[in-house]
Amino acid sequence: MSFIVNLLLGLLFGVGLVISGMADPAKVLNFLDLAGTWDPSLAFVMGGAVIVAFFGYRVVLGRKRPLLAPDFQLPKRSAIDGRLVAGAAIFGLGWGLGGFCPGPALTSLGFAETGTLIFVPAMFAGMLAAKWLARA
Amino acid sequence: MTEFTPVASLIGGALIGLSAVLLMALEGRIAGISGIAARLLPPYHKGGVLSRLGFVLGLVLAPLLDALVSGAPVVQTVSSNLPLMLIAGLLVGFGSVYGSGCTSGHGVCGLARLSPRSLVATLVFMAVAIATVFVVRHLA
């Protein structure tokens, strides 16, 4: 049941990425290129997503519990520390180099571009390294 | 150059937001793709791998659904500089897990929850990504 629900929500999320243009690294890199061929589209992607999530969360989190799980699992960390800033900076560097963040990279797998097929396994390797480092 | 697409981007963004809201309403979880993907990897804790696999499978199959519905091919330009894509992938994977989130977890869900941590993370990765593109395209 949970598998099917997640599959459908992943489909919805991925279709959103495709329709919005966020799955195209060229569009992402142009959004980040303020001094060159700037394409402001991605501000509308984030704007649309944040506005819907902001109002949706207000309704949903006012309820006692989710429909299919015993409780809401919200992030417990609140400290703004070196790890948060360093991780975000490293992520930003990779995002600026390749134009892919995790969602669009996974959504692009089916197009089987060589760059994507190199990027995704490398991304999983990086995640594995961070998980083991955080555990140590 | 890529075409400025405010309407399609706003609609696509709203669908991403809707997916995030429904994941919270049904399963009580944040729609952070780096977190979902990282839970497919060891070390495992508290299970839930199958549901994460479902979400990732949905992401992978999404262009197929989009093509069936819209009938239009998806336009995409991925860099063919393979060493660059390898390094970019390593950095994106490492940084998003080490910093507890990416564009979706911090940039969408975190901002929507008005989390100060996510605001800081989003400002940092945006600034670094903009600076990176500036160096690569205009200085290098």
UniProtKB/TrEMBL annotation, chain A:
Domain of life according to the entry: Bacteria
Keywords, ordered alphabetically: Membrane, Transmembrane, Transmembrane helix
Pfam families tied to this protein: DUF6691 (PF20398)
TM regions (residue ranges): 41-61, 82-105, 117-134
Protein name: YeeE/YedE family protein
Source organism (scientific name): Borborobacter arsenicus
UniProtKB/TrEMBL annotation, chain B:
Keyword Protein transport assigned: no
Superkingdom of source: Bacteria
Principal location listed in the UniProt entry: membrane
Mode of membrane association: Multi-pass membrane protein
UniProt KW Coiled coil keyword: no
Annotated TM spans: 6-26, 47-65, 85-112, 119-139
GO CC annotation, single: plasma membrane
Subcellular location: Cell inner membrane
Keywords: Cell inner membrane, Cell membrane, Membrane, Transmembrane, Transmembrane helix, Transport
UniProt family annotation: Belongs to the TsuA/YedE (TC 9.B.102) family.
Protein name: YeeE/YedE family protein
Organism: Borborobacter arsenicus
Lineage: Bacteria, Pseudomonadati, Pseudomonadota, Alphaproteobacteria, Hyphomicrobiales
